[in-house]
Amino acid sequence: xxxxxxxxxxxxxxxxxxxxxxxxxxxxxxxxxxxxxxxxxxxxxxxxxxxxxxxxxxxxxxxxxxxxxxxxxxxxxxxxxxxxxxxxxxxxxxxxxxxxxxxxxxxxxxxxxxxxxxxxxxxxxxxxxxxxxxxxxxxxxxxxxxxxxxxxxxxxxxxxxxxxxxxxxxxxxxxxxxxxxxxxxxxxxxxxxxxxxxxxxxxxxxxxxxxxxxxxxxxxxxxxxxxxxxxxxxxxxxxxxxxxxxxxxxxxxxxxxxxxxxxxxxxxxxxxxxxx
Length: 276
Known about the structure:
It is a multi-pass membrane protein. By secondary structure, this protein is mostly helical. It has one domain (3-92, 124-254). It has ten helices and no strands.
């Protein structure tokens, strides 16, 4: 297997494994701190926005021109908008909210509770499928970023990893409530993350080993569009809901500053042959 594919596969495994971290939030504490998750989402949103606009889209425009760079960028936006329309990002509901429903007089009785548990389990399974389909284009993004250079691949994997932690919570929370099984909750959340390296493997063998530089830059611009849409459409609203608007915005700018610093220090620390 090509070394570029191996690097991309390793990075995507890190991103996919972050859903397992989200599952650990649940099984170690069934009522996870949503404010912390919101701040993580805001921080990851800052990373993603920096990558999208200051790196991928910027380089595409400089390399292939303003018009072509923008066409590729918005092609990526439209692609992920279609994906999000058919597979919306799940809403995270704390276990405490779900449990409170059984305290009302209208929902008394074991039969109703069993039915409710089945409904919650079904929602967890649907959420896992949806997240798996969401993770597939993220794996594609990591692969294409790794083709451009280690710096781009590493930073994309870092941002996606932070984004995947709340996704793991969204899968594990309803499954744990419905089954009372920590293993089942952890297993399903982890499996949903495996779609990311699967995306790398499939795309690695669909694309030719040596792409035309102009097409590669265009594809990276499209990845920038995918990341920008994912951030503004899904990550920021969740960050606002969980952490509050003011705190989330601070986390976004902290993420952007962290990304700028990491780009600089990674660039000066890498050998010239590995640098962009």
